[in-house]
């Protein structure tokens, strides 16, 4: 498989480049700031910034290349363009490429169905350099709960006199140190608490997952895919 890595100069981009090679594939393009002439490829893996998505997709559409979108923090307009592009090329998008994290999302949806009357709180913790909050994975966890229970009222942190309301879900972001990423979902009732947690210990887990996603996507037809499709859940 011939791979182009978009955002290759970033920390995650460098890890993905290494994971491509370690998994026996050919790294044919490393895009940093400027788009230069690129060798023929089979797939693009994007670990750049949200502002790069339009030129990236323009190139992918021109070359008819599948795209693994691992960047988070897109605007509504950018997200719409991603979904439009998937009508022409295969696109797999996820806020988190850890296999364990994606299993957590599936488990959270099932727990929410079973514990529909519980108070639910999401807490995510990342290193001090992370730009966006809450994390894309926390948003995916929220979406999983809402798939089970319908629309809820997200509360991003609390301050002042703020008693909990019905159909409220708390979402909290912690930033500090060099924490790779921890996500915790609490289901709380008057008599018990269930906590589902995933912790990433090394950033390479995301790079390996992105390469697995690229392997899967390179065999697919045009369409919008997620890690659930890769995992078959």
Q: Concise description?
A:
With 233 residues, this protein is of the alpha/beta class. The chain has helices at residues 11-22, 53-63, 76-85, 99-114, 136-149, 204-217, 227-231, and strands at residues 2-6, 26-31, 43-46, 67-69, 90-93, 119-126, 153-156, 168-175, 181-188, 193-200, 223-225.
Keywords:
alpha/beta, Rossmann fold, Dihydrodipicolinate Reductase, domain 2, six-stranded parallel β-sheet, 7 helices, 35% helix
Write structural notes for this entry.
The protein is an alpha/beta fold and 233 residues long. The protein has two domains: 2-97 and 204-231, NAD(P)-binding Rossmann-like Domain (Rossmann fold), CATH 3.40.50; 99-200, Dihydrodipicolinate Reductase, domain 2, CATH 3.30.360.10. The protein is 35% helix and 26% strand. The protein has seven helices and eleven strands. The chain has helices spanning 11-22, 53-63, 76-85, 99-114, 136-149, 204-217, 227-231; strands spanning 2-6, 26-31, 43-46, 67-69, 90-93, 119-126, 153-156, 168-175, 181-188, 193-200, 223-225. The chain has a six-stranded parallel beta sheet, sandwiched between helices. Strands 7-8-6-9-10 form a five-stranded mixed beta sheet, covered by helices on one side. A hairpin with a 4-residue loop joins strand 9 (181-188) and strand 10. The model has no long low-confidence stretch (mean pLDDT 94).
